[in-house]
C-alpha cells in the first residue's frame, strides 16, 4: 500500500496537444447529435463551485431524461478532452478464443489488430458451479483481482488492468498492451485505456455464447487506484450494468474541487496537483488545469453521474485521510442529485465507514453490497437499495452543501 507515498518532485509534465474526442454514446437522430455536441474545450468556463450537472454547455437546462443522455454525451467529450485522454473505438479487427482451463475456469483470449499492430490480452473467468441460468451467468469484472465478496452464483473475471496500461509511476506513461496497439503517444491515460479493455471484454463476450455470460448483467469493481478505474469504466461504457468503486478516493468518487478545499482546511489529502505528478491515471493534458480547477467544466460528480440511471454503489474508508473522505461524501452527494432527478435515487448508493485496513472488506457492509447484486445482477427487483451514509467525523472540515451545490434538483422523469 502506498497511501502515504511522498509527492514526487521534479517531474516534468509534458504538455501534449489537446485531444479531439467524440462521444461514444449513440445519438438517435442528426438533430439530436447537433444538440448533444460540444466543443472539446470550453475556454470561458469558470466556476469555483461544483458545476451544475443540469446545464448544457451553452447554458440551456437539462429538462428530460433524453436531455440527460445528451448531457452525458457532452460530459463524455469534455472529460476525454480535459482529463482522461481519448478513448478509441473498437480495433479494426478482433479475434476471440474461449479456453476452458478447468471445471469452472476459463480464459477469454482477445486479440486486437489495428493499423498494422496487434495485441492479445486474456482475462480469466471463475464460474459458479451448476448450469447457467437462462441468458447466462451474471459476472463481476475485478480490476487486478477481487477485494469485495461476490455471491457464489455470479462469475468473476480477473482483468489484469495494470498489464493493459501500467500504473507504477510517471515511467508508466504510454506503457502496456493498449499502447502496443495504439502507440506510446496515444493521449489515453491508463484509466481510459483500462476502460477500452472493458469494452473489448464485453464485445468479446457478446460474440462468445459458449461462455454463458449474460452481457446485460456485468458489474465492474476495483479498489483504490483500481476503484478510480472501475468508476471511469462505468461512466464511459454504457453496457456496464453495475459499478462498484471501492475506496477510490481522489481521482475516483471524490471531487477535485472538494479535495483541494479539504486540503486548504488542513487535511493531508490527495489533490489534482499531486495526482498528475504521482502516476499516469490521467492524461498529460490534465496537468494544464490542476492549478486552477475553476476552469474545469465538470468535476467527478459529473463523471459519476454519467452512470445514471444505471446503478452504482461506492464504498469509502473514513480511516484514511489521504483518500479525502469529505470530498467523496460531498462529491457523491452532488452526483446523487442526478439519480434523484431521474427518479431512481435508489440506484445510487454510498457507504463510508472505518475500522478496517485499506481495501479490506468489513462484513458490516455486506448487506448493502448483496442488495445491489440481488437487485441489479440477480433479478430481484424488489430488494431495497436505499443506502447513503457516512460515519465520518469530518474533524475541523465542514461539509456545507450550499457552499458547493448551487442547483435545484429538477424532475427529469
Ligand atoms: C487511493 O488510491 C491510491 C492513491 O490515489 C495513491 O495516492 C496511493 O499511492 O495509492 C492508492 C492505492 O492505489 O493504494 C492501493
Automatic annotation (TrEMBL):
Database matches in Gene3D superfamilies: alpha/beta hydrolase
TM stretches of this protein: none
Keywords: Hydrolase, Lignin degradation, Secreted, Serine esterase, Signal
GO term, biological process aspect, one: lignin catabolic process
EC nos: 3.1.1.117
Any one cellular-component term (Gene Ontology): extracellular region
GO MF, one example: carboxylic ester hydrolase activity
Domain 4-O-methyl-glucuronoyl methylesterase-like span(s) in chain numbering: 110-343
Top-level taxon of origin: Eukaryota
Record field: catalytic activity: a 4-O-methyl-alpha-D-glucuronosyl ester derivative + H2O = 4-O-methyl-alpha-D-glucuronate derivative + an alcohol + H(+)
Family: Belongs to the carbohydrate esterase 15 (CE15) family.
Protein name: (4-O-methyl)-D-glucuronate--lignin esterase
